């Protein structure tokens, strides 16, 4: 993988390139952030850049023998550790599966990895046997390159086994680089953290996500922009959303808010019927969009100069709605929608749920109106 294939994260790229050029690359790095922000992709690009024999200031050459092997994840001096299922398993046992997985893209999360190894709904870990394997591999000489690199993906799965790696992290063999990748800093041992230079990955900016979607899966620019707004800077999240988020979902949301506000029973029933016909993933995408809409609404209520991250049509609906709803009510509806996500995951009857929601939202808005007129009449 080349740096140019990692979406955004220019500051991290600059830091790494400069560190290598000035021969000051820390021997143990920790890339912190969701895989969807590009942590695994960046580790792959960095490993290739370190080993490339014709690297330029900006990127690896992409064509030399080292780049060729690194690009296929078969370079003998780039080693990988990742969570596996079962107490005796090592990453070495699943190398063909791992290479195939990476071949499908480095913007994939750990659940997708488990699915690839038939381990859905199971708890993975990085085992004692894997730590022993790491120590053995790193004690060997390099095969082809001048450097040896170990990428540990989802390092939080090391748990207490991480203690076995402390010594080698403290005093690594010559020309050995560790790139640890983790999503949750609080699950890593402090002794590991203190031995690594931590690089935190920021959310990928909306325009970069929209561009990526246009290049890969989404044809319509508006939809790509909409999904980027919803994805919280996470490419994997954006790709999942792109399968279920569309104009129908956003129209349905705006319509719901209007109907719940007016409280016309005749309109509520057909709307709830239409919603219940959506599949579960689309229903969750609806709730996801709703939460984003309400949070944007809340920010706009607090500060009218807030740049609303919505498309034009929905932006207009939000501005109109901000006149009739107060922050307290918005927060109550947010709580309701968050609970809906929880219930939908447990296969609750969506018709009853949404009918109940519609009535509650109507009363919330109505009570708020009464409170307002009570205040005004004082
Ligand atoms: Zn090269």
Can you describe this structure in just a few lines?
With 378 residues, this protein is an alpha/beta fold.
Stretches where pLDDT is under 50 for at least 5 consecutive residues are none
| Gross morphology | elongated
Q: What name goes with the CATH superfamily of the largest domain?
A: P-loop containing nucleotide triphosphate hydrolases
The largest beta-sheet arranges its strands as: 2-3-4-1-5
- Report the β-strand fraction as a percent range: 5-15%
Mean pLDDT: 92
Oligomeric state: single chain
Helical content class = 40-55%
The largest β sheet comes out as: 5 strands, parallel
* CATH third-tier fold name of the largest domain: Rossmann fold
| Number of helical segments with 4 or more residues | 17
Give the CA-CA distance, first to last residue.
Answer: 68 Å
> Which small-molecule ligands are present, each listed once?
zinc ion
Order of helices and strands: HEHHEHHHEHEHEHHHHHHHHH
Number of strands: 5
Report on this structure.
β3, α7 and β4 form a beta-alpha-beta unit. This protein has 3 domains: about 200 residues, P-loop containing nucleotide triphosphate hydrolases (Rossmann fold, 3-Layer(aba) Sandwich); about 40 residues; about 130 residues, Zinc Finger, Delta Prime, domain 3. The longest helix is centred in the last third of the chain and has 28 residues. A 5-stranded parallel beta sheet has the order 2-3-4-1-5, with helices on both faces. The mean pLDDT is about 90. It has about 375 residues and is an alpha/beta fold. It contains 17 helices and 5 strands. It is elongated. It is about 55% helix and about 5% strand. The structure holds zinc ion. The site of zinc ion has 8 residues, from α3.
């Amino acid at each position: 993988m080349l740096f140019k294939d990692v979406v955004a994260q220019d500051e991290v790229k600059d830091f790494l390139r400069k560190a290598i050029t000035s021969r000051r690359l820390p021997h143990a790095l920790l890339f912190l952030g969701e895989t969807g922000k590009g942590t695994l992709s960046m580790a792959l690009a960095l490993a290739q850049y370190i080993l490339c024999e014709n690297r330029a200031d900006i990127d690896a050459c992409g064509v030399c023998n080292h780049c060729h092997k690194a690009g296929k994840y078969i370079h003998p001096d780039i080693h990988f550790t990742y969570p596996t299922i079962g107490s005796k398993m090592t990453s070495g046992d699943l190398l063909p599966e791992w290479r195939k997985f990476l071949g499908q893209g480095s913007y994939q999360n750990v659940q997708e990895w488990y699915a690839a190894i038939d381990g859905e709904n199971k708890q993975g870990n990085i085992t004692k046997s894997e730590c022993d394997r790491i120590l053995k591999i790193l004690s060997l000489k390099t095969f082809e390159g001048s450097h040896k690199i170990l990428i540990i993906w989802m390092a939080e799965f090391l748990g207490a086994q991480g203690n076995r790696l402390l010594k080698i992290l403290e005093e690594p063999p010559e020309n050995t680089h560790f790139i640890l990748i983790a999503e949750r800093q609080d699950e890593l041992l402090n002794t590991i953290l203190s031995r690594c230079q931590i690089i935190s990955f920021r959310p990928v900016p909306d325009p970069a996500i929209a561009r990526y979607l246009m290049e890969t899966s989404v044809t319509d620019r508006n939809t790509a922009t909409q999904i980027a707004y919803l994805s919280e800077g996470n490419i994997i999240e954006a790709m999942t959303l792109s399968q279920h988020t569309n104009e129908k979902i956003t129209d349905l949301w705006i319509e719901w808010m209007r109907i719940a506000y007016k409280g016309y029973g005749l309109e509520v029933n057909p709307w709830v019927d239409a919603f219940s016909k959506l599949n579960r993933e689309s229903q969750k995408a609806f709730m996801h969009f709703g939460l984003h809409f309400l949070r944007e609404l809340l920010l706009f209520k607090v500060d009218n100069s807030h740049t609303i991250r919505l498309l034009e049509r929905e932006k207009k609906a939000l501005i109109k709605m901000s006149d009739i709803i107060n922050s307290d009510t918005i927060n109550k509806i947010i709580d309701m929608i968050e609970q809906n996500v929880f219930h939908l995951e447990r296969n609750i009857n969506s018709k009853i749920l949404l009918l109940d929601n519609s009535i509650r939202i109507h009363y919330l808005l109505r009570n708020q109106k009464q409170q307002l007129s009570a205040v005004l009449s004082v």
